[in-house]
Specification:
The protein is built from 18 helices and 23 strands. β5 and β6 form a beta hairpin. The strands form 6 sheets. A 7-stranded antiparallel β-sheet has the order 3-2-4-1-10-9-11. The protein folds into 2 domains: 230 residues, Aminohydrolase, N-terminal nucleophile (Ntn) domain (Glutamine Phosphoribosylpyrophosphate, subunit 1, domain 1, 4-Layer Sandwich), CATH 3.60.20; 201 residues, Rossmann fold (3-Layer(aba) Sandwich), CATH 3.40.50. With 465 residues, the chain is α+β, with helices and mostly antiparallel strands. Helix content is 30%, strand content 25%.
Length: 465
């Protein structure tokens, strides 16, 4: 039984070039990015002549240990943590994906979703390609292999001209590390340096853990090549408007990361403060459900003057699986992770500050627990607008029916969850809180305006995989 109740990201990627401890740096980088994927982990390294790999199902510390890392020799490495949004949660879909073709070995790790995956896969199969997995990443590898005779760099240029959607990829050959990002820039990706070596990571928190210095973000549409002669970039796309995933700020990215030019912690506080401006409430205290709502709750309390309390306590030692309890132990998955502080909650008017409501079922169980603990009134404020449309770019709500706000009014959602009131942050308020250009985000999950329309049958494809 998994205890990951919120929406889930697809992956985190990490790469290093020019460091003798590439495998261990990659291990720690993946450790910092664990929040981006908790189903599988993998590392591939190169000595410049030979490539080694190890990957498996589970968290980073479950897949790797020191003896395993010692077998992953080399000064180049890439790593991946995965949560499946397309492709089944099975061992053969763990990344990085490694293939040998025409005398070249390629290893790739990918974060995102290709919106034209079904068409590309069908076209490749008609031309004789045989797929081993259901991953988008393997489609990219087949496209690379088709043009590898022109060199790896040219093969990447041709591959990105065919793929559409969201992708941040790290690609490794025996002697090079490459990183490329989709021209819309949906997902974050950054470049760092450490003692003469170069680091690529999904978020800056991975740089912090290994004491690497942040250099810059990898630009949307950029292909970055790192080799013995240093850094070089290819920019094959005409410049276009960025459509950063705003949900990275709201939920996915770690609060200590800087993404899209802003600090996540600071943005979440501003989201909470904006909530307090839009919805003045009277209450004894406000509280988050740890940990996702913590930072918006701080901002809400600063803005409203309502005291902040921790009305529930999180168990930080929850594993990924449990022995199933007796049927009489209701809502075990919620209770084992969060436990209410009854003395604080009893007879109080409480405001819950939440980052988002996706399906509503977890919120319903949590509110029920607070009622049973004695809370007199329970209000909820949410630091984004209602999610009414599916995401096709790497978040795991790919069908509209999964989203409670797509089928129900705010009043109906309030009643389903069991609240006294429910308030969502407005779209203009959310955009203002980011501190960035208002037209630079993908807002499709809120307004249904998709910057890259998905191919027909995309939702069905995700469910089948």
């Amino acid at each position: 039984m998994k205890l990951c109740h919120g929406p889930k990201e697809s992956c985190g990627v990490f790469g290093v070039f020019g460091h003798d401890d590439a495998s261990k740096l990659t291990y720690f980088g993946l450790y910092a990015l664990q929040h981006r994927g908790q189903e599988s982990a993998g590392i591939v390294t190169s000595t410049g002549k030979s490539i080694q790999e190890h990957k498996g199902m589970g968290l980073v510390h479950e897949v790797f240990n020191e003896p395993i890392l010692n077998t992953l020799r080399g000064h180049i490495g890439i790593g991946h943590v995965r949560y499946s949004t397309t492709g089944s949660s099975i061992a053969k879909n763990a990344q990085p994906f490694v293939v040998s073709h025409a005398g070249k070995t390629l290893a790739i790790a990918h974060n995102g979703n290709l919106t034209n995956a079904k068409k590309l896969r069908g076209d490749l199969e008609k031309r004789g390609s045989i797929f081993q997995t259901t991953m988008d990443s393997e489609i990219i590898v087949h496209l690379l292999a088709r043009n590898i005779q022109d060199g790896v760099e040219e093969a990447v240029v041709k591959a990105v001209s065919e793929i559409q959607g969201a992708y941040c990829c790290v690609l490794m050959t025996e002697d090079k590390l490459m990183a490329f990002r989709d021209p819309n820039g949906f997902r974050p990706m950054c470049l760092g340096a450490l003692n003469g070596s170069y680091i690529v990571a999904s978020e800056t928190c991975a740089l912090d853990l290994i004491d690497a210095q942040y250099i810059r973000d990898i630009d949307p549409g950029e292909i970055l090549i790192i080799g013995q002669d240093g850094l070089r970039s290819i920019r094959p796309f005409a410049e276009r408007r960025s459509t950063f995933c705003i949900f990275e700020f709201i939920y996915f990215a770690r609060p200590d990361s800087n993404i899209f030019g802003q600090n996540v912690y600071t943005v979440r506080k501003r989201l909470g403060k904006k909530l307090a401006e839009e919805y003045p409430l009277e209450a004894d205290f406000a509280m988050p459900f740890p940990d996702s709502g913590n930072y918006a709750a701080i901002g809400f309390c600063h803005g409203s003057g309502i005291p902040l309390e921790m009305g529930v306590i999180r168990n930080h030692y929850v594993g990924r699986t449990f022995i199933e309890p007796a049927q009489s132990m209701r809502d075990f998955g919620v209770k084992v992770k969060l436990n209410p502080v009854r003395e604080i909650l009893k007879r109080k008017r409480v405001v819950i500050v939440e980052d988002s409501i996706i399906r509503g079922t977890t919120s319903k169980m949590r509110i029920k627990t607070l009622r049973e603990a004695g809370a007199r009134e329970i209000h909820m404020v949410v630091s984004c607008p209602p999610h009414r449309y599916p995401c096709y770019y790497g978040i795991d709500f790919s069908t509209k029916g999964e989203l409670i706000a797509s089928q129900h009014t705010v009043e109906e959602v309030k009643n389903f969850i069991g609240l006294d009131s429910l308030c969502y942050l407005s779209l203009p308020g959310m955009l203002e809180a980011t501190g960035l250009e208002k037209d630079g985000f993908c807002l499709a999950c809120f307004n249904g305006k998709y910057p890259i329309p998905p191919e027909e049958g995309f939702s069905k494809l995700c469910l089948e995989y």
